[in-house]
Amino acid sequence: MKKFAVAAALLSATIATPALAADGGEARVEVRGGYIWGNGADEATAGVAAGYDYDLGTNTFIGAEIAGDKVLVDGANVQFSAGGRVGAKIGENGKLYANAGYTFGDIDDPYVGAGYQHKFGKNVYGKVEYRHQFINNFGDFDTIAAGIGFAF
To answer: Is residue 101 helix, strand or coil?
Structure first.
């Protein structure tokens, strides 16, 4: 039931984000891949995310994001996450940010991180992000990921 509720929330947010963009913010969807390591283990990851950033002025923004990511190892399930980010606009096309949130699924844990997002043209962007996850009973893990997305 929990996984169904998460999937429904992800779908609802993805459908609703274009309507939110009319209020001065920016909706976004992306695909991403990366690498996770910690506690003597390491593996590749892949995922999708949807988010919304709201301008707080000419130099700052705040945003929210929901995502589904999978560690690419046999038997691993998709982990879902929900979090927020706050940051500074760098020039015309860049966003430097700090983020925090919670990952849930087979393993529930909080995370903190930082990233940089850069627009290439009007709607396409790329980003690089680091996360530190505090996983109980397994030790801490670190993730570095790169993504490409569409903002509208």
So the answer is: strand
Locate tokens 């609802």: which residue? 12
Could you tell me if 66 and 36 are in contact, meaning their C-beta atoms sit under 8 angstroms apart?
A: no
| pTM metric for this prediction | 0.83
How far apart, in whole angstroms, are the C-alpha atoms of residue 67 and residue 85? Answer: 13
The secondary element (H helix, E strand) that includes residue 11 is helix 2-20
**CA dihedral in degrees (121, 123, 125, 131; nearest 10)?**
150
Q: Please give the backbone phi and psi of residue 38, each rounded to the nearest 5 degrees, phi first.
A: 155, 155
pLDDT per position as a tens digit, 121-133:
999 999 999 999 9
Domains in the chain, CATH or no CATH each: 2-151 (2.40.160.20)
- Cβ proximity of 130 and 123 under 8 Å: no
What is the DSSP code (8-state) at residue 23?
G
The CA distance from 131 to 73, in Å, is: 19
User: Is residue 60 within 8 Å of residue 50, measured between CB atoms?
Assistant: no
